[in-house]
Amino acid sequence: MNILAIESSCDETSAAVITNGKICSNVVATQLIHTQYGGVVPELASRAHQQHILPVVDKALNDAKVTKKDLDAIAFTKGPGLLGALLVGTSFAKSMALGLNIPLIAVNHMQAHVMAHFIDEPKPSFPFLCLTVSGGHTQIVKITAPLQMEIIGETKDDAVGEAFDKTAKLLDLPYPGGPLIDKYAATGNPHAFPFPLPEMPGLDFSFSGIKTSFMYFLQKRVRENPDFIQQNLPDICASIQFTLIDILLKKLKKAAKETGIAEIAVAGGVSANSGLRKSLQELGEKMNWKVFVPAFEYCTDNAAMIAVAAHYKFLENDFSDQTVSPMARMDF
Ligand code: KG4
Ligand code: ZN
Fold first, then answer.
1. So what's the ipTM on this one?
2. Are residues 306 and 242 in the same domain?
3. Number of structural domains found in the chain
4. Is residue 326 part of a domain?
5. Is residue 301 lining ligand 1, measured as CB closer than 6 Å?
């Protein structure tokens, strides 16, 4: 059984082929055009998807040594994401499925981030918790079976990836700033500049207050010393990263305690953060958790995760018809 999967929710155009549950190709074209604007420009993202989608799909089929007539279904990201960007992948998938007369499978992007844990071994067993952290979302998800998921905690304002990226912007780092904060933090002291943690009840998160306190802190220090940022970049990045990770892991610890679940996974773009990966492993050892961290290539947006989610949907005969349309906001 061969499924072609397409991801186009934000600024990565990606296509993957999964054969009998095994990923055979995963091609990702990252849109570099947004760097000069300091963030993703939706209109430019849609245009870039239009340019990339055909070569990316062709390469994914070639890499997997699969032809169009070998395909049994076409999967695509239905949402959440940028509507214009999603429309490109959705229209392409619908046309291809119509032309080949094969089923269509609509996939939720956030569920797919979690399903990235079913690409390689070791796979988590059920139930497990997944901290899903990306540019647009911050969630604690309880998973009881493939694609059976419930959000038990989430951000009430900004996503943690957004907090990384917007703080990086204040530091004059180019978009996306998350990986650069990670890079500079590696040689800095995480305790150089302590920040107060937000108070948020239950398992929910809030990142807008901490983002503002980073901003006030930087404005004050730069007023006192205009070279403050250049002179202290590693320590600033390490302290900011430490604070953001601390917020995430405190809630994850609480979720594990409340649910009694000790299989803990992390997913989404921010799970590529080396500080988060290391701190989660350390916390896992201390708490006796079994920790699952995805391979780097499956942290940020990719079609392999869409393909693996589609594989499970195919097994359930969970198909969409030609009336399906993308959704910028989408629950599980
Ligand atoms: O999952 P993703 O590729 O796209 C969305 O669905 O949003 O996540 C992108 C986010 C961006 O905010 C980016 O800065 C962040 O993931 N990110 C990182 C790292 N790599 C990617 N944040 C911190 N450290 C990293 N190493
Ligand atoms: Zn994503």
1. 0.99
2. no
3. 2
4. no
5. yes
